[in-house]
Specification:
The protein is α+β, with helices and mostly antiparallel strands. The protein has helices at about 1-25, 30-45, 90-110, 160-165, 170-180; strands spanning about 50-55, 60, 65, 70-75, 80-90, 115-120, 145-155, 160, 190, 200-205, 215.
């Protein structure tokens, strides 16, 4: 009797396992994701450059992937290099560019007297939210999210989110400026203090929430000082630097729980009480890639095939005032 029950239990487990694998493999992306991606591509906001390379479609398990992924080595018109290449869908690129140009770069000049040279970004990974075994797919599964682990200034100073959030005053002010400002460009923003999973990075995504709600957590007391008159057009791509490769973006990227320290050989810069440097070294930190200074050749992106049915007309995500609260 015991052997028979054991065999029956094994059969049930095998059937459940096959059903689970089938559901995971053949799940589909929500239709709005392809619609928004198609609209972004046809808008012309994203162009092929030396630092923005189109890739083949990613068709991962459970609906993971995107129609036209891009491999990115720099953002903000090539002026901000990435620690390692990122893979993102089209809608995230204009949002990240605007945030960096209109918020983060002015904040770097305001609090450090420096240009922003690089960011350490996590991108596409086919997984559930918070790496859970079961549950809702993360926006990273669709190239619709970016994790910001650290920033690099032109003098080589690295500002890790984990240490800087409660670090020296200039780092605290800079990171809070960047955090609060991001809530105008993304529909989900999570940072240190929001939960146990985001203590060391900013999570930014363009998920659709009910009634157009924007989730921006934690709620912090900070008065932003960046104003529109501080925004400058990027001066152009920075010189190409060696980069860390992420060959297989379908696998989970390293979460950089220990943000990178300043590169070897970086000039030490004395700072005043408010964090401003007393001497400047205007070269990108070694290992933080950016594009070649030559004028990039712009190539049109091949159009995607039309989507059958009657797609809803959904504009690209606008800059929006944050409405705080909600559960991620």
């Amino acid at each position: 009797m015991s052997a028979r029950m054991t065999r029956q239990a094994l059969v049930v487990l095998v059937l459940l396992g096959l059903a689970g694998c089938s559901l995971f493999r053949f799940g589909q992306r929500a239709p709005w994701r392809d619609e928004v991606e198609r609209q972004c591509l046809s808008s012309g906001l994203v162009k092929v450059t030396d630092y923005t390379e189109p890739m083949r479609e990613i068709d991962g398990p459970g609906g993971c992937g995107m129609q036209q992924p891009f491999r990115i080595s720099a953002l903000a018109e090539g002026s901000v290099g990435l620690k390692s290449r990122a893979v993102l869908a089209c809608p995230m690129l204009p949002a990240l560019d605007r945030w960096l140009i209109e918020v983060v770069q002015p904040a770097a000049r305001l609090y450090y007297g420096q240009e922003l040279a690089g960011v350490n970004v996590g991108s596409y990974a086919c997984r559930n939210q918070n790496n859970a075994t079961f549950g809702t797919k993360s926006e990273h599964s669709y190239g619709n999210a970016a994790d910001i682990m650290s920033f690099a200034l032109a003098d080589g100073h690295i500002i890790p989110v984990e240490k800087g959030w409660r670090g020296m005053q200039a780092d605290q002010n800079f990171l809070r400026e960047a955090f609060i400002g991001s809530c105008r460009y993304f529909s989900t923003v999570l940072g240190p203090g929001s939960d146990m999973f985001h203590y060391n990075h900013f999570h930014l995504d363009l998920a659709r929430h009910q009634n157009g709600r924007v989730i921006c957590k934690p709620i912090i007391k900070f008065e932003p000082r960046v104003t529109p008159d501080m925004i400058r057009k990027p001066s152009g791509p920075r010189p190409l630097q060696p980069m860390q490769e992420q060959e297989d973006q379908s696998e989970e990227y390293e979460d950089a729980s220990h943000p990178p320290s300043a590169p070897n050989g970086t000039q030490q810069v004395m700072r005043t009480g408010n964090g401003a440097p007393t001497s400047l070294q205007q070269s990108p930190p070694a290992g933080w890639g950016a594009a070649s200074p030559q004028a990039p050749s712009f190539t049109p992106i091949p159009p995607l095939p039309p989507v059958t049915g009657s797609p809803s007309s959904m504009p690209l995500p606008p800059v929006r005032p944050p409405r705080l609260g909600g559960i991620y």
